[in-house]
Write a structure and sequence with these properties.
23 helices; Serine Threonine Protein Phosphatase 5, Tetratricopeptide repeat; five-stranded parallel beta sheet; mainly alpha; about 5% strand; Rossmann fold; DNA Cyclobutane Dipyrimidine Photolyase, subunit A, domain 3; globular; 5 strands
């Protein structure tokens, strides 16, 4: 058997628009490899719900590779350390070249990839890492970044290989699970499901996107629900962007689709922002562990076990907050506004450390994308110095996003009999009504663990005091210049950080 072209699949679990697979297929016999790394799935941001989704993507990838190869040999799965697995294959069969996409993951995967690069260099094995999603490794300035991203999204999709010679290597079985994390209503993985969601979203669901994405009542159907398929690469970002742009062109030229235009444009903007935040982690990997603006972490360094556990389990005494946390436990998904509210409530009202909050949520999100996640956690926790401090009024959000209490009653059954007049603040019910509606506060459902208006005011004051020093403002200016994204057509200077950070939004 001649030396192999090894294609290392990581979070790019597809055969369409997969440059490493296509390039390798032009050069000889291919070993399409996925390495199940037990240590990766033991990381504090990993969970079984994430693995189940990835596993279903891998199963469909295997079928696609078998179809292309026209033979029983498909995906090769090995279990173990990546360097050790590659060394074994190299010793046994010889590796002519190693192909992969660049991955912007957590620090563990970054260190793993660096170790693989060192191994390849030592063994004289060419290692081709191909960029994706418009992210630039080694970027020094955001000047012109959006233009670069747009150009990358316009490039034609890489086709499936017309021929694929798959090496008949032995393969380990796919592990069934990596833990006991139950998520009964989680999305199912696989490219075919992702494509079906993309079609249904662009053809009709998108009409509700702009007006329906904020409320947990409407967001499950109004949002695209494509995030986990992008996270694990069952769909490429480029193909989603191009499909969206085709829909925009249709809506712009055909009056019967004009009602979709605003939502389609808003969705395309979100796709651009996705890469923007992934680029931030690529350029500043420390944000997984350290606050972007050290002064704004304040004294939020110690977890309060009682407060944190009440928040983490959906037992805060604020029905809307608890309903959001419980739906996340059961489904692995929550719309963006509610993700932001959960983070802000924990970091402002409860004054909990942003990293502990981020790790808990990371494990619950099936679509956990480190670049987006840690950027957003720091933004919603007020640790960036370049974003507004958004301190949500959780009772106002409850009234605005769930006016009848339907969402609360579904996920907080203790309150099922409570009428709309009391559902948002059941702790204000007179004792006789509590007994009448079968929800005695402190017995059937907890009393609020904090007074949300008082703790919001205290957090706002602490953040203002931390930010108003000249030193803190200077750091913000440096961060803004480094991480704001500008095209050549956009102004060189964004609004001053003081203007942005003066927006204490009690929404």
């Amino acid at each position: 058997m001649p030396p192999l072209q090894v294609v290392w699949f990581k979070r790019d679990l597809r055969t369409v628009d997969h440059a490493p697979l296509y390039e390798a297929s032009q050069r000889g016999q291919v070993a399409p490899l996925y390495i199940f790394e037990p240590e990766l799935w033991r990381q504090p941001d990993a969970s079984n719900r994430q693995w189940r989704f990835a596993r279903e993507c891998l199963q469909e990838l295997d079928r696609a590779l078998r179809r292309l190869a026209r033979r029983p040999s498909g995906l090769i799965l090995h279990t173990g350390d990546a360097v050790e697995v590659l060394e074994q294959i190299h010793q046994t069969h010889g590796i002519a070249a190693l192909w992969a996409h660049q991955e912007v993951g957590n620090d563990w995967t970054f260190q793993r990839d660096r170790a693989v690069r060192c191994w390849a260099c030592e063994r004289g094995v060419p290692f081709h890492e191909i960029p994706q999603d418009g992210v630039i490794r080694g970027l020094q300035s955001r000047e012109g970044w959006r233009d670069h991203w747009d150009a990358e999204m316009r490039r034609p999709l890489v086709p499936e290989p017309p021929e694929l010679q798959v090496a008949p290597l032995p393969s380990d079985p796919l592990p069934e699970s990596v833990g006991d994390d139950a998520c009964p209503l989680a999305q199912r993985g696989g490219r075919s499901r992702g494509l079906a969601l993309l079609r249904s979203f662009l053809s009709h669901r998108v009409r509700s996107y702009a007006r329906g994405l904020s409320s947990p009542l409407t967001a499950p159907s109004a949002c695209s629900r494509l995030s986990p398929y992008l996270t694990y690469g069952a769909l490429s970002l480029r193909e989603v962007v191009q499909a969206t742009r085709r829909a925009i062109e249709q809506a712009s030229s055909d009056p019967k689709f004009a009602g979709r235009l605003r939502s389609l444009q808003a969705f395309e903007a979100r796709l651009s922002w996705r890469s923007h935040f992934v680029q931030r982690l690529e350029s500043l990997p420390s944000i997984e562990f350290e606050p972007m603006h050290p002064a704004l972490a304040n004294d939020r360094t110690q977890v309060d076990p009682a407060l944190f556990e009440a928040w983490a389990q959906g037992r805060t005494g604020y029905p809307f907050v608890d309903a959001c946390m419980r739906t996340l436990h059961a489904t692995g998904w929550l719309n963006f506004r509610m993700r932001a509210m959960l983070t802000a409530f924990a970091c402002y009202h409860l004054w909990q450390p942003w990293r502990a909050v981020g790790l808990h949520l990371a494990r619950l999100f099936v679509d956990y994308e480190p670049g987006i996640h840690w950027s957003q956690i720091q933004m919603q926790a007020g640790c960036t110095g370049i974003s507004a401090f958004r301190i949500y009024n959780v009772v106002k959000q409850s009234h605005d996003q769930d006016p009848t209490g339907a969402f609360i009653r579904r996920w907080v059954p203790e309150l099922a009999r409570v009428p709309a007049a009391w559902i948002h603040e059941p702790y204000r019910m007179p004792p006789e009504l509590q007994r009448q509606y079968g929800c005695v506060i402190g017995v059937d459902y907890p009393a609020p663990i904090v007074a949300h208006e008082l703790t919001a005011r205290a957090a706002r004051q602490k953040l203002f005091e931390a930010y108003r020093t000249p030193e803190a403002k200077a750091i913000s200016e440096q961060l803004l210049q480094r991480h704001s994204s500008r095209s050549r057509r956009e102004p060189r200077h964004a609004p001053a950080p003081a203007q942005q950070l003066g927006l204490f939004d009690p929404s």
